[in-house]
Amino acid sequence: MKDRRRKLQETLISLPSLFWLSLFFVVPTLFVFSVALRPANPYGGIAPGWTWANIRSLANPNYLVVAWRTVWISVASTLICIMLAVPISYYLARVSAKWKNVFLMLIIVPFWTNFLIRIFAWKVLLHPDGAIKKILAFSGLVSPQASLLYNAGAVVLITVYTFLPFTILPLYAAAEKFDFQLLEAARDLGARRFQAFAKIFLPGVRGGLITAVLFVFIPALGSYVIPDIVGGPGGEMLGNKIAQRVFVDRNLPQAAALSVVLILSVLAPLAAVLILQRKREKSPSLLEVNR
Amino acid sequence: MSEFLEFRNISKRFGSIQAVDSVSLGIKRGEFFSLLGPSGCGKTTMLRLAAGFGQPDKGRIVLDGQDITDLPPNKRQVNTIFQSYALFPHLTVWHNIAFGLQVAKKSKSDIQDEVRSMLRLIRMDDQADKKPGQLSGGQKQRVAIARALINKPQILLLDEPLAALDLKLRQRMLIELDMIHDQVGITFLYVTHDQGEAMSLSDRIAVMDSGRIEQVGSPAEIYETPRTSFVAAFIGDTNFLEGEVTGLVDNEYCQVRIADIPDVVCFNDKSMKPGNPVFLSIRPEKVHISRDRPEAATSLNVLPAVVEDMIYLGSQTKYWVRTHGLRIQVLRQHFRFFLDEKPIRWKDDVWIWWHGDDGFMLDRFRAGDEKLISLPPQKVGEFEDNGSS
């Protein structure tokens, strides 16, 4: 009886957020799905009737190239971010309080400048006549003809730059809660420095790690601004293709079809994480019941 | 006798704090050795240096004839039991215990066998699949012990392992630790601030204060023959009496003037000469108290006194009496409960006496150590005085 009442209360409490999510997430998503199945009219609108043509047009090999590039740019950016953020957050959690504040400030300060301005700043930095290019060319690390801008590498670089703080912060929050004596214990039991790190520290900050991955990977999949400004034709991603369908071709249903692909590829890793977490939460409680 | 674990002239500084100050110490094979001292005395630093968490600024650490000073923790055959247990929260009991063997790349079947026998040793065979979060304090403690012992360390370091447990559990774990030490026969280095733990478990104790070792000896030596005022006051309770040797009774005893008492007899094991200043430590339970004057005997110091304070402790009563301006603690064991005996009360005139052997001369006296003795606040006594008059 009491349980039922609590359940009812919980449902009631979650109703507003359910309403919010339905109105601003589920409904628009379904709307996009439905537009993807409509024919386009020549004025950039949606014509009546239903068609598979938009979905079929996705088989275009050009899209495949862009989709593959979108995935690898996102994966590479995520990996680089995590590889940088893990040691940084480990260090941040261990450094004295005074320096910790300084470093955290340094991580947060860039946010005070507009995102677009920061990307344009990178354009200046990587300019063919810029200092970085000249130094690299002079030292023979890149050929004088090579461009640092307008390619996939530039997109990865700027994506990492943009999302690194979002990976550091959740990892730092997790590392801060980590009991570093556990690393001493591992070393004491014979683990080498790296073994202790991999077997004890990484599982210890698992939650922060998952959050950090999602914080880079999902926005990276949907990036539009970064490849648009620094990507060039060799750095185009799905987001750019969607924009082109809307602004250049004025074909909303085509854009919607591409969006469906993007939405599904964002939801897939999220669902995987959710299922994994569910499983982990369940297993110990199952054991408890058995005892 | 050769030492098994040896600290040779070790110094370690943290910022402005000299945590360990030129300490030399030897621990024998198979011994249960305790480092005892108040917090901040450097005992934990010594333990961490032995484990390899940090390098000494000066000095060497030698284990079984091998200099291990520069070895990292994973290269030392030394394992630690941490005060907070430091069990790996994401691993089960089984995997916690197996950790050391797994990183050592032992074969699966060996690991199975050894973990099973360890689980049996700590009597937790049926809890192998639990996570540390599901265990009680005592169980976590036992897992920590098993996890350390499975590596077959040459020496086991224990950092206040019982501090986080409640009293009853602590007493049980105390016995269990002692049994495990007897069973596995390896050397234990035990760090504690609890004199009771150190006294009951140890073969030998080193008492530490401010980064230095004050005294090393068996529990009985430490208690009965404290060399410094710190040792006397930190372990158990005591009375400090300051005086000057006035004459020699014979080869063994001398006379000491304390306050205005000219002839306190004291065992003269330090070969003091007349005119030498001395500090005596007299344990409260060595001082007797009675309404009746005892029969005179040689080497007995008998003084009239007035009771100022008393605390009933169940098996015994503690009195604070004043004699010749000195305040002395007396601990009296209750052997029998005589209903017809008139009990000693506040402001009563009594006799106190102790044997000359029980006043022990200290090598070194530091005035601050008197604070370690449990004195009742003067005001409480005065309040009682006013109440009765």
| Helical amount of chain B | 10-25%
- The total beta strand count of chain B reads 20
Instruction: Say what the CATH topology of the largest domain in chain B is.
Output: Rossmann fold
Number of strands of chain A: 0
Search tags:
heterodimer, A: 291 residues, mainly alpha, MetI-like fold, 13 helices, 76% helix, disordered C terminus, B: 389 residues, alpha+beta, Rossmann fold, OB fold (Dihydrolipoamide Acetyltransferase, E2P), 2 domains, six-stranded mixed beta sheet, five-stranded antiparallel beta sheet, 9 helices, 20 strands, 34% strand
Q: Quick recap of the structure?
A:
Chain A has 291 residues and is mainly alpha-helical. Helix content of chain A is 76%, strand content 0%.
Describe this structure in words.
The complex is a heterodimer of chains A (291) and B (389). With 291 residues, chain A is an all-alpha fold. Chain A has 13 helices and no strands. Chain A is flat, with a radius of gyration of 24 Å. In chain B, strand 1 (5-14) and strand 2 (17-27) form a beta hairpin. In chain B, strands 6-7-8-3-9-10 form a six-stranded mixed β-sheet, with helices on both faces. Chain B has a five-stranded antiparallel β-sheet with strand order 13-12-11-14-20. In chain B, 24% of the residues lie in helices and 34% in strands. Chain B has two domains: 5-227, Rossmann fold; 230-388, Beta Barrel (OB fold (Dihydrolipoamide Acetyltransferase, E2P)). Chain B has helices at residues 43-51, 93-103, 108-121, 137-149, 167-184, 195-201, 219-224, 229-234, 378-388, and strands at 5-14, 17-27, 32-36, 58-63, 66-67, 78-81, 155-159, 187-192, 204-209, 212-217, 239-248, 253-258, 261-267, 277-282, 288-290, 300-312, 316-323, 326-333, 349-355, 360-361. Chain B has nine helices and 20 strands. In chain B, helix 2 (93-103) packs across helix 3, helix 2 runs parallel beside helix 4 and helix 3 (108-121) crosses helix 4 (137-149). Chain B has 389 residues and is of the alpha+beta class. Chains A and B meet through helix 8, helix 9 and helix 13 of A and strand 6 and helix 2 of B.
